[in-house]
Structure formats: C-alpha cells, structure tokens
Design goal:
The structure is a single chain. The protein has a single domain, classed as Double Stranded RNA Binding Domain. Helices cover about 25% and strands about 35% of the residues. The chain is globular. Strand 1 and strand 2 form a beta hairpin. The strands form 2 sheets. Strands 5-6-7-4-8 form a 5-stranded antiparallel beta sheet, with helices on both faces. The protein has a 3-stranded antiparallel beta sheet with strand order 1-2-3. It is an alpha+beta fold and about 150 residues long.
C-alpha cells in the first residue's frame, strides 16, 4: 500500500493559510480534507510524534454534541485541568498539553460534521486519562466515547 500524499488546496483559504488534503499522487478517489491549515498539520504531527506516542497509556475516541461548537465547550474544562494550547487553532483542530497528558482532537473541514470530533488522549496512566475524560463529560455536556485503549485495559 502506498501512503496518501498531502496537497495544499489553494481554493480553500483558511486564516492566511490553505486546507491540507490527502490523496494518491496519481489521482483516483476524491481528495480527503485532513487539516484546515498547514500550520495545524505540522503542529499536530509534532505533538503526536513527540508527546502522544511517548505516553505509556493512550486512548482514541470521539466527542459529540448535537447543537454546539465542540471546542468552545472543551477549552474551559481543559484549562481548568491545567492544559495549555501550544498553538492557536481553528474550529476543526484542538491541541492541548500538560506535563502528564496530551490531547488532540480534530474534525474534517467541509464534511458537515460540525458536531463530532475525534480525539487522541495520552497520559502517564489510565487513571489520569479516566479523570480527564470524566471531567470533560461532566463539565462540558459533551458525549465522550472511547473506542480503543493502548495498551488494552484489563
């Protein structure tokens, strides 16, 4: 299998940058929007590689809320838990970190999925991750669904 290549969609400007799409180099399927800006793609990649992948416990899942901008509900809760944002992001990408945990969440631009964001959460242990997810669910009214734990919980 060949990896998808990243392309700049200059017809989709966003905050002084352009949407990053992915597709096969020789065409084929329609391009898939990956990030609203190139800056977000680079920052997400660095946070993923140098923080998330290094965490002893990780989980992946989705955040959902029918009628609201998810990140505007998420940011106050994460701030109260000691998370900071390494860069300013738009509506589709959120990057948050603190000493013992890192969270990234994202959605796909132009797919009309305003009420769903996937997330990656890594931390020092499962208890830390469960406390963070519990506070997000309780304090933000977001629905939190964890799809996978790595390593698997017993």
């Amino acid at each position: 299998m060949m990896p998808l290549h990243a392309f700049y969609d200059l017809d989709a400007p966003a905050r002084g940058d352009a949407t990053v799409t992915a597709r096969y180099a020789r065409g084929g399927d329609d391009p898939i929007d990956r990030f609203e800006t190139f800056h977000e793609m680079l920052s997400w990649s660095a946070l993923f590689r140098f923080r998330f992948e290094q965490m002893p416990q990780r989980c992946e899942g989705t955040l959902y809320r029918e009628d609201s901008d998810l990140l505007s509900l998420l940011v106050p809760v994460l701030s109260s838990l000691g998370f900071t944002q390494p860069i300013a992001t738009g509506r589709y990408c959120g990057l948050y970190e603190r000493a013992d945990a890192v969270l990234s969440c994202g959605g796909t631009p132009r797919e009309n999925l305003e009420n769903v964001r996937t997330f990656l959460l890594g931390g020092s242990n499962a208890g830390v991750l469960r406390r963070i997810l519990g506070e997000v669910a309780k304090e933000s009214s977001l629905e939190v669904e964890v799809n996978t734990w790595t390593p698997a919980l017993r």
